[in-house]
Each structure stands twice: as structure tokens, then as C-alpha cells.
Amino acid sequence: MTLRNHNWQRVCAARAWKRWSIATAALLAGLAGDAAGQDSHYWATQYGNRSRLLAGAVIGSVGDVSAVFYNPGALALIESAELLLSGNVFEYTAVDYRGLVGGEEDFDSNRFKSLPSMVAGEFPFSFLGENRLAYSFLIRQDFDFRIRERGALSGAEVGLPALDLLAGDVRIDQDLTESWGGLTWARTLGPVSVGVTQFIAVRSQRTEFQIAAQALGNAGETLVSLQNRDFRYQTWRILWKAGVSKIVGRWQLGLSLTSPGVSLGGSGDVGFDSTFVLAGSDRPEVGTGLVTSTQEKLPARYKSPLSIGGGGAYTFNNERARVHVAAEWFNAVGEYAVIDSEPFTAPEGGDTLSFNITQEFKSVFNAGVGIENQFSELLGAYAGFRTDFNAGLEEPTGDGQFAANVSRWDLYHVSLGSTFTIERSDFTLGTVFSFGQSEPFDPLDFLPGIRPPEEGRMAEASLFRITIILGFGLAGL
Fold first, then answer.
1. Domain 6-475 bears CATH identifier 2.40.160.60
2. Distances from the Cα of 286 to the Cαs of 116, 204, 289, 310, in angstroms?
3. Distances in Å between the alpha carbon of 174 and those of 340, 403, 432?
4. Theoretical Cys-Cys bridge with 53: which of 87, 180, 188, 417, CB 3.0 to 4.6 Å?
């Protein structure tokens, strides 16, 4: 997450010294800023044993109870009720940064974890008649990120030749979870099947920054700057996903529509502390600066977009093989305040400062394709590919504003795997390879007025992820 703090720069009178400390802290924060976050990617997580291996390209052709998410209308086409357990997923992620402090240094972050996913099933009530009713619980977002980076560089490297040495330390701690619980109704109406799922979503995010910077001037001055920023919130919202599905010859087709989220309320806290100390200076107007603010139980919200999806599958090779295609468009979400924080006053100078957490998403269009082949009733093979473009805008537009989202790159996912059946139990074994690379970016683009000596110097960030899927399902319950 790119770090901005224009207001803090106004706390002390010595603009040059403050820029030196901010340069160190912000440059180090840039090492970790874009993390392995996926809160701005709508197609990062997929559900269902076969659906995962088909890269989620099943909006028009989902064949199990994961239809409650992809296309509720397709639930009416499933022959028998089933319980879907899709929770044994293991993920290894590697993130690499190059060129952040000049030169060719690499900074790596690696993580291995087990991920929760989805539990869904259909109520086998005979009194429902042609109506189908299902329940679901799924994890839409689940990641945590912790990093500590230390570094030292000369002032010349950040366009401040008066400095002999800059040193700093940055720590970032972030957790994000979002869970959905849903109830789905579906039935056949004439030539098509229709359905709708009502979801209740609970989203929690906690982000903390701790930054320490030290500077040594060529005339013997020393500077220490400490800064801590943190915010946390929990929000509730409701949304609906409707779908329609139809079989036409060898084609199975479908459309889906997801409503924007409707806020049910939420609360959050923000905290801001900043200290600036300069010693050995011959400028008496420069002294110690301190700013602190803690605000609790503030109104909070999270906005999710309208989306429209569609797709289908074509069956061939004596009904043993299918090709699946799907695409989904997500509308933009204008900039809004995630937490309603209030401005506060600096004790020295009386400046009015702000620490605002904002969010904004651009419109994106994702597409995917999947191929399956059933060698027998007991064994099938699958492959798929999908895009997963970043919807988050990297920079807030106003002074004193900080973006809650952390992603910078576009992702691409390739899946391979197989399923096999033993009696009434379905097993899935597969893997998903995910990769992405950011566009070249200026590592100091968050420091207006301070440019590196080499104007053309750019940094890059890349991600590589391996996901192992061990799926299990029970049919005919």
C-alpha cells in the first residue's frame, strides 16, 4: 500500500528535515506496500471441486451445488441434492520486488497457508415440489500479511545530497477476511430454470503501520522520526445474485447478475501518532513535533459493485468432453470513505490534519475457458485458464487520504487436475498456478517534489502462487 502523509509534513517547520525522514520511511514502506493482497480481484477465489479445475468458467454450465454462487438458476438442473465440501486448499505465494532502492536488489516475501473455501448443500424436502432450496457458506476474502523491512541509503539516492545517511525500519501488519452466508431458491419455469441467492456478507480488516526513520546530516545534525498509523473495521451488507440457465441441444447456457451490496452497518477505529525530533541543528525554530489522535466506534461501510456474467458449455466426443467459456463485467465503484474519521488539530502550529481511509474501484472485465474430458464414469480430467484483473485504484485523490486496498498487479490463473468417484463419494486432486507482474512504477511517486537523480528509474513487482486442491463431495444425500 503506497504511503502518503502530506498533512504530517506540515507539523514541523523544517521542511527539508521532514522530507528526509519521510523519504526513508516511505521508501522502505514501498518495499512491502503491494503485498500479496487480492482484495481488488473479483475472480481470485473459485468454489466447487470441478469448477475450480475449470478456472471458474462455469457461469453458464455449473454442474454441482456451487451453482448457488456461480448461477443460482442452474441449481434447478442438478439431478440430485448433494453436499459440497470444498475446504482442503493449500496455497504457497512468492512475491518479488526489484529496483525499489536503485540497483538490482531483490526483496522477497514467501507464505504457505491452508485456506478455507466453501460448504454448500441442498435441502431434500419433498414438500418443495419443483422448487429447489439450498444453503451455502463461503469465504470470499482471506489473507494476512506481515513484513518488516530495514534499509540504509545515502541522501543522493533520493535527491537529497545534503544527507550523509538515511536509515529506517518499517513494519506492516494486515489481516482481511470476508465471509458470505446464503440461501438459494431455484426452479424450472417453462423452457428455462431461474434462481436467486440472498447473501449476507461480513467483512473485517485490520491494518497497522509502524515506521521509524533516522537521518545524519553532513554538518552533524541528527534526526529521529517515528510514525504509527492503524485502522480496523467490521461491516455487514446484503446482496443478491440471480441467474437463468437453459439447455439448447449440445449447449448449456446461462446468465447471472449480482446486485451492489446494501450496507447493514458497521464500525471502525483509526489511530495516528507521529513524532519528530531534531538535534544538533543551528536552526532554533526546529524542535520536537508530536501529533496523536485516536478515534473509536466510527461508522464504517464497504461497497461492492454490480456485475453481469454469462457463459456456456458445448458437449462433444459422444458426450464425454465439454468446453466451457465464461465472462463477467464488474461496474466501477466511486471513491468513498470506508471509515467516517474526523479531522484533528496538531498541538504545535494548530494545523488541521486528516487520516481518512478511502476505497475506489474501476470497472473490469474478466474471462475464462475450461476443458473437461470424462474417460469413464469414474475418472475425469480438467484444465482451465482465467484472467483476474485488478480493480483497485492505487492512489487516493485527496490530501490526508489513504487507500484501504493493497493490490497493484493483474493476475492470471492456470488450473489442471482430475476427479474420480468411489461409490457415492467424489474426490478431486488438482493445482492452480497464479502469476502476475505490475507495470513499471516510480518507487518514489508517493513523494511529491522529491525525485531520484535518475528520472527514468523504475521498479517492478511480481507474484507467483501455487494452490493445491484436495476436494471431497457426497452425492445423493
1. yes
2. 53, 41, 9, 62
3. 20, 13, 25
4. 417
